[in-house]
């Protein structure tokens, strides 16, 4: 099973409230246990079969593999919906053993696309999602009038500084990839809502929000609290970045006030801004003295060696090496002879040791970081592989995304020295700290509102607050509200810019990435304390600390067997998710940004 992108079902822990049922509708405690045991055995089998079909499809996109994955997806969806409907009846009893109760609730809340039970619905929803993924996987934009694929266009958006060409790439990608799937997406929403209603939820969005050991309302409140904690830091970064873009391009391209033009931020979706660090880097402190991509090239790294380096980080913490099949079966580079989904993902096909990653690796800093991230999924998968099938997941989906990101935070100058990439004489001195922090913030902090608004848009779509005819305008409005960005030109009402983002096309819940951005700083701060780090937090590397690895593995082994606060407490000592560790990490930068922005009109 893959954990970065799960198109038809995402496994995430929850103890959600179940719909009220008459007492005589609930079978006995003993029969509930029997039902769970039987369902879990079938579920384990279908996870493997679905993973195999999806792997072949994403690494060999054609009409036959699309049909195969749609067929497997439909079978999986029928099974999960049937078991969820039955589970709701059993779960109404108050006297169930803990594991039986938790698994019954997971049967309901782990479903992302709950197809209606009427004949043909599961097949239709599976076909829709497979087709949308195919549109995305085969999608192309243009650069100077010539076709450019998704992997190459992502790289070009981070390096091109011609505003007309950036606009061309942005517009062509959104037009060619997003617009063609709008009707399929609207149909998928109707079907998912119909299925969610059968399961006792108001709509599919309410089902998604039930996935976090709390009610949908409590989860929405929690995410808003977390956003309000970190929002002032984002606003300062936005203000500073806009000023630098104005200096670079002039008023005719980027105004001094108001929102930022989305295509100028070094990323197709303006979700991370590290690609334009050269534009915002402060004089002196901004020159870090090295670029990871350049270091990799100078040392002769190829994609395989980059992955070996990532494996080495986890090995240094005491985790055993990846199996030989990982190196035989993973997709590391984009094949030249066929269409594939390049979007990075991590898989455990047999839920035991058939670990794989799927990437189209380029020798650059971004992919070096992404490798550390994806391997985090793999090591998490292996840590909990002895758990029962319904616990084969992270404590919540944000945990799964945060583990690898925690390791990536440890890609500090000291770590680069330790693995022989950086000459010790070239380690940036303390006067470069603002540059180091700004470079991190351009990805970590810039992402926060994007990570939040993706699902907030979808929640409103599922609830009916946003109708299909308003998809595009609502998307544009919410991106301006949360991120302070606007498209590079007017968008037609028939456009469907949300579909130009993979997780929308593949129907992958996205709030997990917002949570992960915050959780990784909680994990990182805890690991640095355990390692006895005394210097500035952002300089900490716990590479080689096996005690940290041992305590981390104890949390990972829990899988989804316990509510997420238990897992969080096991590693960090706290039961509450918080944005404060991130704020402590970036505290020197926030003060510096406020000084740079003095006298400017911030906000949008």
| Count of runs of 4 or more consecutive helical residues | 25
Q: What portion of residues belong to β-strands?
A: under 5%
Strands of the largest sheet, in order across it? 1-2
Please identify the structural class as seen in this structure: mainly alpha
Our Rg estimate from Cα atoms comes to 23 Å
Cα distance spanning the termini = 42 Å
Largest sheet: number of strands, sense, barrel closure: 2 strands, antiparallel
**Helix percent band:** 55-70%
Can you count the beta strands? 6
Mean pLDDT across residues: 92
**Low confidence ranges:** 3-25
Overall geometry comes to globular
Pfam families: Peptidase_M2
Protein name: M2 family metallopeptidase
Keywords: Disulfide bond, Glycoprotein, Signal
